[in-house]
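User:
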Amino acid sequence: MFAAQPIIPLLTEFTDCMDRRRTPDEVLETLHVLASKYLAISVLGAARFPIKTSDWRSTRLGRDVFLHPSVPKGWWEEYVAMAKREQDPGVMMARSSLMGCTLTETLRMLEPIGIDRWPIEMSHKFGMRDALTCSVGRRWLVSYWSSKPLHNVLTQPGRILLFAAASFAALRLERLIGHDPRWMGKKNHRITNRELAVLRLVSIGRRNHDTAKLLGLGEETVRSHLRNAQIKLGVRNRTHAACEAIRQNLIP
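Assistant: Predicted structure:
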């Protein structure tokens, strides 16, 4: 259990070491040394989000995702195969959280059933009984894992230490691997402000007539904005479009 170690001196030493790291593997190993020494947990890895959460399935190992050697063999390959077919609700929740969420906490809050339990069941299959995932700037996910439940390990000071260390690690990774052109998306596929305005009203149940009146547009213009948004988001209908826009944090 993390004792009353002075967090600021630890982080100062950690950041000095991190600034000298030259590869993603070195960054993750430095983070792993800190986590395993003071909290007896391991680093899973780090992943950089594209701007569209629907593009999460397009992430590639060594380009957007970096794993630590402590990750159980076979987990990543099986995770990727499943993620191509199903959403990981825990990832979406972690990305929108202000503080790190453990796997156990996610399970308690989301109460997943059926297919939504697959990430948790897969983690348990590979001996990862718990994990802590930190969202950094809603751009990076940095994750730790443990073979034991974390509720007896993660004191509040320990959680702060891990989150701060994950933030510094993500910053160093961002500098090392450079700009991702997918962050801004392709110009002709961006959702326009008017399309977003229409989707916001759709998301709260407004019909086309009401939406047109509230935005000062014609009904046919509203329908056109909805069609364009559906094409750009790759969805089937207006409801799906509004849900996908919320999932991608395009509308509140």
